[in-house]
Design goal:
The complex is a heterodimer of chains A (170) and B (449). With 170 residues, chain A is of the alpha+beta class. Helices cover 38% and strands 16% of the residues of chain A. The longest helix of chain A has 53 residues. Chain B is α+β, with helices and mostly antiparallel strands. Chain B contains nine helices and 18 strands. In chain B, the strands form five sheets. In chain B, strands 10-12-11-16-15-14 form a six-stranded mixed barrel. In chain B, strands 5, 6, 7, 8 and 18 form a five-stranded antiparallel beta sheet that branches. In chain B, strand 1 and strand 2 form a beta hairpin. Chain B is elongated, with a radius of gyration of 34 Å. Chain B starts with 8 loop residues before the first helix and ends with a strand. Classes of the chains: A alpha+beta (170), B alpha+beta (449). Chains A and B meet through helix 1, strand 1, strand 2 and strand 6 of A and helix 3, helix 4 and helix 9 of B.
Chain lengths: 170, 449
């Protein structure tokens, strides 16, 4: 009698030992996928904030790496305020210099958009150029995220959302 | 009564009223297996829901970004002409399309918006145009269904995108037949309320013909006027041929004394004439305000002088000629002959292209250009004191070639040029709607929905 009970317990423990790791792995995988998804969504939202802020600001010199309005836009998106130390970063590990802003000009002859040069005939407003027609905000090198799955050594996944917005800042 | 049922289970080999057999002993050992068989599909189902719903939500956000860009691009081209809706639809398509490998995409940036082929498809509906915000957003009496407007009246653009998103786990719900969920987003962009602060405009001011007329300030739409530089005393210059009357104007003081480039004031005046007030983070330089608290003042070296008799070569301050030199670039490429003495004039002109339509037009609705000929001027109650000019609104004109069928001439001794009054149909580059209580005037492009 005691032997049969012990056998049943052993059988249950064995089955549990077989299934629990699978369930836990599924749970881990789901949580990790959700983390990637959430991170991508947050990055997309950050870039949208930069793009929509910049596209309505007058006097932005996109050819000046130190332009105060561009810095303010990035800080607003990354920290929730135009000062870099206003709040905790919305996403850890993303620095302002990872976000780039490309300027584009519409060519009526070819009906296409092309990158606008930083020159007096292009988009450098400090040397005689005029404002671009579009801006593209992106993370060219990607935001690296690694899936933390137990027992699996994954390469980091680069997330590269990108936003194109018409520039209306004049 | 069954005699077996009343036996004591603890003493007769029965357990829980059932006889213990080899079969029941086996089942008792498999309870965790049964649990797993039931739980795994349930857990899989919930995990699938979570993954699919998250992805659909993500796709929705990405599509909305694309729709916003298209609506904003389209609305910027709605300038009140017959062709404006065609130009707006083209602009929306440019905002959607991929150039140099870049576009607004969806599904983690993997799918082009508007792709009709492939594993996952989406469609961009033809943009619709409306004269009021309520019609465009569907909040009006007609529910947005019957308010579509033609080019001359259209002020707002509505863009809708629908994606057929493939789902992984969501297939058995009625909303996602065959594993496809339809996600539709809509964006509405258009003209804002009338601006109290207008930025990037042409930096000149005229006096209202009738300041009591809040709609047009006494001006008549599609009527040619001569805009001539203000001067004092008798001998007021005559209007140019073919125009109704002369409207005196002055150049507002928008000199940027701290400018690092184009520091010379004549070059600055040229740039303003060529492309409007320069973009700046300083409103006082790049904008004109409707306010009684801080009235605008005339550019110091362009203060009106005494009107002179006909026959004298230049009867306005020299800066006016520089301003008109810039304005001439709206008609033709390069620097107008005689304007090349302006410092850095080539650099100040290099990026500027003339209008694509320089025809002499009797009706603004027929204009098909790129807005270079549209100027936005401030309206003052009067120009009695040019050192305290009370701005009461903004209105727009279309620059016209001169009566002898030549382009605008900076050499006119009275600083005159011909302009067709058009009201306020075109969006201004930038500005703010707060700070005054005006009922009409040009707005800027904003996202309504």
């Amino acid at each position: 009698m005691r032997g049969r009970n012990a056998s049943r317990r052993a059988s249950a423990i064995l089955e549990t030992a077989l299934w629990v790791p699978l369930l836990v792995s599924l749970l881990f995988a789901t949580v990790e996928l959700a983390r990637v998804s959430y991170t991508y969504y947050t990055l997309h939202k950050i870039l949208y904030t930069v793009a929509s802020y910049l596209s309505t600001q007058p006097g932005v010199n996109f050819c000046d790496d130190a332009d105060a309005t561009i810095d303010a836009a990035k800080n607003l998106a990354l920290f929730g305020g135009i000062d870099a130390d206003a709040n905790q970063p919305i996403i850890q590990g993303l620095a302002a210099d990872q976000i780039t802003v490309r300027v584009e000009r519409f060519d009526a002859e070819s009906d296409s958009l092309a990158e606008c040069e930083c020159s007096e005939t292009g988009c450098d407003i400090n040397t005689g150029g005029i404002a671009p027609n579009y801006i593209v905000v992106a993370i060219p090198d990607g935001f690296q995220i690694r899936l933390a799955l137990p027992g699996i050594n994954n390469d980091p996944i680069p997330l590269r959302p990108r936003i194109r917005m018409p520039y209306g800042g004049g | 009564m069954d005699p077996v049922a009343i036996r004591n289970p603890s003493s007769n080999g029965f357990r829980n009223g059932a006889p213990r057999t080899r079969l029941t002993r086996g089942r008792a050992g498999s309870m965790s297996l049964q649990l797993v068989v039931i739980l795994v599909p349930v857990i899989f189902g919930f995990l699938g829901f979570a993954i699919d719903l998250g992805r659909l939500y993500m796709i929705r956000g990405e599509l909305k970004t694309a729709a916003d860009a298209m609506a904003l691009a389209a609305a910027a081209r709605l300038n009140g002409t017959d062709e404006s809706t065609t130009a707006a639809a083209t602009a929306a398509e440019v905002a959607r399309a991929e150039f140099e490998g870049i576009s607004n995409r969806y599904d983690y940036g993997g799918t082009q918006v508007g792709d009709a082929e492939g594993n996952q498809t989406s469609t961009v509906e033809e943009p619709e145009f409306f004269d009021t915000v309520s019609a465009a957003t569907g909040e009006g009496d007609d529910g947005g269904g019957g308010g579509s407007a033609g080019g001359a009246e259209a002020r707002h653009a509505r863009v809708a995108v629908t994606a057929q998103a493939r789902t992984l786990f969501f297939r058995f719900l009625p909303q996602a037949q065959e594993g496809i969920a339809a996600i539709r987003v809509q964006s509405v962009a258009g003209m804002s309320a009338p601006l109290c602060v207008a930025c990037g405009i042409e930096g000149i001011v005229i006096a209202a013909v009738d300041s009591g007329d809040t709609e047009n300030f006494g001006l008549t739409t599609d009527t040619r006027y001569t805009l001539g530089y203000a001067c004092n005393g008798a001998n007021q210059p005559q209007p140019l041929a073919g125009t109704t009357q002369r409207l005196p104007y002055v150049i507002l003081n928008k000199l940027n004394e701290e400018a690092e480039s184009f520091a010379d004031e004549t070059t600055q005046a040229y740039r303003i004439g060529a492309n409007g007030l320069p973009p700046s983070t300083n409103d006082a330089i790049s904008c004109v305000r409707v306010t009684s608290d801080e009235p605008e003042i005339v550019w110091a070296t362009a203060a009106p002088i005494q009107c002179a008799a006909q026959g004298q070569p230049m009867r306005v301050p020299g800066l006016v000629g520089n301003y008109l030199c810039g304005m001439a670039t709206r008609f033709e490429t390069g620097v107008f002959a005689g304007c090349d003495t302006i410092p850095e004039v080539d650099a100040a002109t290099g990026a500027l292209l003339p209008d694509t339509n320089v025809d002499d037009l009797d009706e603004y609705a027929g204009y098909t250009g790129n807005n270079r000929r549209i100027i936005t001027v401030a309206i003052a109650e009067n120009l009695d004191d040019v050192n305290a000019i009370p701005i009461i609104g903004f209105r727009q004109f279309l620059l016209e070639p001169l009566p002898n069928n030549t382009n605008l001439s900076p050499t006119d001794g009275n600083g005159r040029f011909v302009a067709l009054y058009i009201g306020s149909p075109a969006p201004v580059k930038q500005g703010r709607v707060s700070g005054c209580t005006i009922e009409s005037g040009p707005g800027k492009v904003v996202l309504h929905q």
